[in-house]
Amino acid sequence: MQTISDLNTPERILLGPGPSMVPSRVLQAMAHPLIGHLDPKFIELMKEVQELLRYVFQTKNQMTLPISGTGSAGMESTIANFIEPGDAILIGVKGYFGERLCDMADRYGAVVYRLDKPWGEVFYPEEIDAALRKQPVKVVALIHAETSTGALTPLEGMAGIVHKHGALLLIDCVTSLGGIPMKIDEWDIDIAYSATQKCLSCPPGLGPITVGPRAREALHRRKTKVANWYLDLTMIEHYWGDERTYHHTAPISMNFAIREALRLVQEEGLEARYLRHLANSELLWDGLQDLGLRLIVPLEYRLPSLTTVAVPEGVNEVEVRKRLLDEYNIEIAGGLGAFKCKVWRIGLMGYSSRRENVVLLISALSRLLR
Amino acid sequence: MQTISDLNTPERILLGPGPSMVPSRVLQAMAHPLIGHLDPKFIELMKEVQELLRYVFQTKNQMTLPISGTGSAGMESTIANFIEPGDAILIGVKGYFGERLCDMADRYGAVVYRLDKPWGEVFYPEEIDAALRKQPVKVVALIHAETSTGALTPLEGMAGIVHKHGALLLIDCVTSLGGIPMKIDEWDIDIAYSATQKCLSCPPGLGPITVGPRAREALHRRKTKVANWYLDLTMIEHYWGDERTYHHTAPISMNFAIREALRLVQEEGLEARYLRHLANSELLWDGLQDLGLRLIVPLEYRLPSLTTVAVPEGVNEVEVRKRLLDEYNIEIAGGLGAFKCKVWRIGLMGYSSRRENVVLLISALSRLLR
Fold first, then answer.
1. What is the pTM of this model?
2. Of A73, A286, A309, B28, which is the most buried if we count CB atoms within 10 A?
3. What is the set of domains in chain A, with CATH numbers?
């Protein structure tokens, strides 16, 4: 076979839906020489990662840990553990990731009730209430920040409705955690999952989750084995719990990385971080509108970490993205599913959410769309 | 919450069952600034990783790729994709990881036929032939190098028997790939999985797999959806195939790392690498026997990447390991399952397989056991 050359990739400015840019401190921590996954020093580090995750999730949940796969594995872990064959789940679908939840739930034998709205819209508690009055379920699953549309579903008051109907509330906060308020305990959310490569600015490879007491009880009341060995929380809780019983080998370097990324979140402070994400997105929104571009999502529920903008009539959307990448080293993304070829998706997440990146992107776009 | 300090872990000499030590070039590649997972440059890199994996697996199988989880996820991917509810599987159990395969297969609805032998033994083709004559199955699963016992099951002639009975041969080569001959095409193995943190000396976080044409046909003939979304090869084949259709976000930094680790394998050459692993293990075996220690596995099928040694009567095995770690920064492991408290497990894998590590370990052990 041919010889494969030294790694030599361009320095990209990552303004897509993830991965976001990773601060040097995180890259350096990831490159730290390895220790064993059962080393007492690694076990201390696991505790620290959990403590830092509790901080960013704003929770006291003991079962707060990084699943050893990317965000989609985190997502699947919540379905696999809280759905048994025949369990009913209500899934709010108004974008790509709601669809994915339906696909996953179906594979675990759930009776899936979909609540559909057009892409780009959001759900309100009264809609969930109406749906649950018609059809009780075990789990209600909603996407907080829909990465495919840039819409943010408000969660205050949601759990009260869901709990009134005896269900568990499962929330996707992949594109919100660490960039937008996400208050697990205050909002009384039972189960949530996220990813590392969005607002946490850590490389992809871990799926942080948190599980509250109601959900944990439901897990322990299961009648069947979890239909997924790798993601089985009844075993993982003993690995990430006090016993540290071997289950699988944790991705050690990724845990070095997330620890450092979360330390950076803590150093900045959650409130300051939320404000930074919002301020830079407002700058972006103004800049895009000044270019005559139309934002897809109304301000009322527009997501500060990911913005969808309509591709203007007559513009080749792929060509613009290609030129941004080739001529400016800037990555933005196109649309998925119903939004394919219709929108660009611009992420300002974590370390990518910087004033200089916004101004550069607006300037580059203005030249390309001229 | 309290402030969490800078990452500061000791420099360990990793001589356990994995992770092995990671060369600086691999750590540096992993710390390379990120590019997007759909960036044309990353797509080139995916091709390179696949080509390098084909080299180390000694295969032309198109479906050769790293699963985005640790070795256990690679293991589960092979069960999830090649087992449908009601399918029969024959699993050879003579250690911990055979047990794990049974657990996984059961979760996917397999009819599991176990072939049990005492821990530390291996299977021969005639035993598999006899079992298949009694009970035909769809898949025969065997562990090549059993990490819990240090025994190496010889695979030459195995596939002929399995194929004669119309079954697929599935092989765990977690602790062999890159350190011991593993000839997928020559030995006609249908499905194999491995891990990165053993003889490849890459941090844990990916599960390399390879799937041959017979197995790929079986995958495409499935009547039911794969019961695991994250590991569904019918979708992953389009992400790692020519279409590069988005499935999940690949762990980008881990792919940088495995590319570099595999380049190092290629630079050394497989034959030289196998010889190095064997020579250093022979040095270890001699040294252990000179200390009066008993090796568990007979030379005939003793694994050159992982050695099990009996804990001498009256010695506190945990205390010895603790002192090796605290006083010498050397990690070795204890036993699992049937071997708990009875053996030490010493790994000489990848970059850990060096003469200086062997000599140091023997010397440290001799002081501690004096």
1. 0.98
2. A73
3. 13-18+270-369 (3.90.1150.10), 24-266 (3.40.640.10)
